[in-house]
Amino acid sequence: MKFEPGLAAVVTGGASGLGKASAQALADAGFKVAIFDVNAEAGEAHAEAIGGLFCHVDITSEDSVVAGFEKARAAHGQERVTVHCAMTSRRGKTVGWDKASGGYKRLSTEDYAFGAEGVLVSSYRVASISALGMANADPLNDDGERGCVILTASVAAQDGQIGQVIYGSCKAGVNGLVLPMARDLMDLGIRVNSIMPGIFATPLMLGMKDRNPAMWDQLNASVPFPKRLGEPEEFASLVLEIARNGYLNAHQFRLDGGIRMPPK
Asked: Which CATH architecture has domain 8-255?
């Protein structure tokens, strides 16, 4: 995809972390960026900083996501790049010891369903609604490309750790969307890929730096090379390359400094 000034992009979770960096990079590349997030204060501030648009969107709500796309398209036109970074999930072992009851406790089906909605279902929701809009847009080039969707999986999709039965399996499901969705959309000229970030210096992880410096140093040392957490800007750089390179399709990209996660 040639980055022409004025092309539109949507970034979910664009108020912080990987999404914020992706929104910044796309704006710097000339895109009109709509940020979808539930954090209105941070989302509006970042949208203003990059000359974009903030849309208050709850990715677990069909109506909210549809309304977000409608608002973004009314302001910027049809998005040609969608980057889905937002998610919500829960944590717990399939069966673990419960101190309160003094016995074993099963991770509830309701907790699993919550994570499935916040990770996997929301990924399908955002990707398919965006693809429907792209399908009705004019091709951008001689290849017939109409746009691309970039989903965020995780190294946990392949290296799920103890307590990540929800997160790991649902992120694996995100990877599982990529090939069949890319094949579904191939005749429409819409590409689909995913990125599996390793341990990145997002606000959640940066909070550990002060709370537990020893754990912070251990995490940095666990990365083969370079021995540090990934920078959100490095994630955003890959987002741009996937969007730019029209031959990247139906692929899951691991971005992790070579790390392979241990059981815990």
From this structure: 3-Layer(aba) Sandwich (3.40)
Taking residues 13-32, report their average pLDDT: 98
Does 247 participate in catalysis according to the annotation? no
- The predicted model gives 205-221 an average pLDDT of 89
| Alpha carbon distance 74, 77 (integer Å) | 6
φ/ψ of 135, rounded to 5, equals: -60, -30
Average pLDDT, the chain: 97
- Residue 83: which of 200, 243, 252, 254 has the closest Cα? 243
Q: What is the mean pLDDT of residues 188-209?
A: 93
Please state, in angstroms and rounded to a whole number, the distance separating the CA atoms of residues 10 and 59.
13
Report the C-alpha dihedral over residues 9, 72, 30, 81, rounded to 10 degrees: 10
Prediction pTM value: 0.96
Active-site hit among 104, 112, 167, 247: 167
